[in-house]
Here is the input.
Amino acid sequence: MAFSLSAASHSSLCSSASTKVSLSPAVSSSAPLVALSSSSSQPHSFSSLRSVKSSSLFPHFSFTQRKYPINGTKNRGCSTKCAASDAAQLRSAKEDIKVLLRTKFCHPIFVRLGWHDAGTYNKNIEEWPQRGGANGSLRFEAELKHAANAGLISALNLIQPIKDKYSNISYADLFQLASATAVEEAGGPEIPMKYGRVDVSVPDQCPEEGRLPDAGPPSPADHLRDVFYRMGLNDQEIVALSGAHTLGRARPERSGWGKPETKYTKTGPGEAGGQSWTVKWLKFDNSYFKDIKEKRDEDLLVLPTDAALFEDPSFKNYAEKYAEDPAAFFKDYAEAHAKLSNLGAKFDPPEGIIIDNDPAQGTPEKFVAAKYSTGKKELSESMKKKIRAEYEAIGGSPNKPLPTNYFLNIIIAISVLVLLFTFFGNNNSDYSGF
Here is the structure.
């Protein structure tokens, strides 16, 4: 759950620039993504959309970012439907996201991007896309203007060049791919993801505002259950997802929460300032639970919904467990994150697309000489290619013979086998008949 504070509540990680992001007056409500104005005139700032009372709990960070025209001349978005994403493009996009994370340190806002797209799901609504969930609707201005999504335009700016490069990936898949990859790259567990999510096609298909959780409601535990039970999640999953608050920091001038600066945030990466939940706020581990339990560091943030995890009897059972057992936390978090990422999604193909642990990219089979002793005078072409691949794998090539020691070892091995066969063959000849 890094159900973050409003996007505005998070610090600027991906850029140290102070350029303000604004909506272009020329962008219509049906544009696939919000365009950034290249002019400073008549800016439509997200600041007016931020609300201290409506801070979302989904993972975090809003930050300023260089201006990037999301809505331009390129084909960005789907017509009536973005069906099955291309598996090869998903794999390549994941590598590009890793590079982005390692250079921009935007793990928290990417986690939040995926969560806010999926977190609008309502299990009581059967029809797609009215039920909400992971369907790419967050790319539309109509949903970006929700108070809980303030600042997520920065995440879209970062991810859009990757979408442009890989046109056969839906926005819904790209948001979830970025979210899961951010957790993994921050040192978290591998998320058992599947892809193939279909995008909504028009802003009218965006969910109404108010489906995401708040950070400081009057009854924090009850509020968390109201929101997450509506999604079909249970107490264990609520607590496990909350552990993603190990990433990120909040800023009082943007969300009303946190300190302007602490000893852990006075330097980067990214723009300095804000208050983090953990000391190492770009590392995914179980520090969130340990730090809340100990309550010994005033420089670390604890929201009402964070404190509720150790105050509510049911939540506390899991929070205590995760504070003591990082392996249990990683296991439960990975399962809860994967479940959240699938909420409300429509998959094409229905079974989804798996891109991790692909058989085609698996470990090559160990070379076993006996497999190639066919007794035939001529090997098949496929067998020749396999033998050639094995030969090259141990250092040989058509223009470069194996080092002498390989041949020497082979000759010695053959000689030993011949001697053993001769010795045992002669010794056993007396017992060959009755």
